[in-house]
Amino acid sequence: MASEFQRTKLQDMFNAFDVNGDGCLEEEDFAALASRWGRLPRVRADGELAARVEEVLLGWWQHLSQTVDTDNDGRIDMDDLLAMVDRLPTMQDAVAATADTVFDAVDENGDGRISRNEHQRLIDLWHGQGITTGDVFDRLDQDADGHLSRSEFAALWIQFWISDDPDEPGNYVCGPVAGHSLR
Questions:
Q1: Which long-range contacts (CB under 8 A, 24 or more apart) does 44-51 make?
Q2: Could you read off the pLDDT tens digit of each residue along the chain, which spans 183 residues?
Q3: Which of 57, 75, 77, 90 has the fewest CB atoms nearer than 10 Å to its CB?
Q4: Domains of the chain
Q5: Which pTM was predicted?
């Protein structure tokens, strides 16, 4: 069962995905998220990447609807999402594959690294609005080289979706978590 920390960290993501604010996620919400991602310069310029982004996002919708939509109404509430989170530790390859696509979409200049500015765009894009991040990037960039490599990002992404430990930096890859800070 998801902890209160997991609920808190994922609530902002849920709210950002829930385009019409009805308290449920539907396929249209994931399509809207894919459309938002499609506006990223690298995604817009690369048809193959655009197709991957759409496939990943709509694929997660399909997985959610098949796995946790127990009443088959085509709607996923926060408790359903958290039930899915409980299953993610057994799905690390799928989570890592998502990280790979997100990385490629956000790495605007294609240099194989996510800069502070690219990371900020990732956060703003997920949330659908500008988010003040404070020192989140500095905490994520544990080797202090000013960038996140593909492998660093994948590890952080997996932590975000799976970890229950507020001290793990990956929990903040999508921005600050209300009431929590990295130590």
A1: 49/101, 49/104, 49/105
A2: 778 888 888 888 888 889 889 999 999 999 999 999 999 999 999 999 999 999 999 998 998 888 888 888 999 998 888 888 778 888 788 888 889 999 999 999 999 999 999 999 999 988 888 889 888 999 999 999 999 999 999 999 999 988 889 999 999 999 888 777 655
A3: 90
A4: 12-172 (1.10.238.10)
A5: 0.89
| Of 9, 2, 7, 3, nearest in space to 180 by CA | 9
> Parallel, antiparallel, or unpaired for β 113-115 and 147-149?
antiparallel
Write phi, then psi, for 40 (nearest 5 degrees). -65, 140
The pair of structure tokens assigned to 9 is: 């960290």
